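quick one before i forget lol
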Amino acid sequence: MHSHLHTPYNANCEEIMTALDECHARGFFHKAIGSCNDIKRDVNKCLAAERYARAKLNRDAAKENRKKIERIWADERAFAEGLSPSPSSSSSSTTASETSAAAGK
């Protein structure tokens, strides 16, 4: 048994879920003989696809956040060791090699 199905997360499955509700509304005997089973399988497939899409978005966002945190940690380690922070995290658009090359000219 599913929890409440008609939520914003499952908006793409609304049509299939409504068809299942209509099938169940026909009565107990109709449900008992398995007339709604195909629709139920379609609902399950749709909900699984929606859940997979949400999980993928969450994973991608978590990976990006992790990259940001690791850059911050690397900069803090570099600062603690007396080194300059990594060029990718500095606000300047020039790298150390570009600066030294420009100074040598």
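fyi The mean pLDDT is 80.
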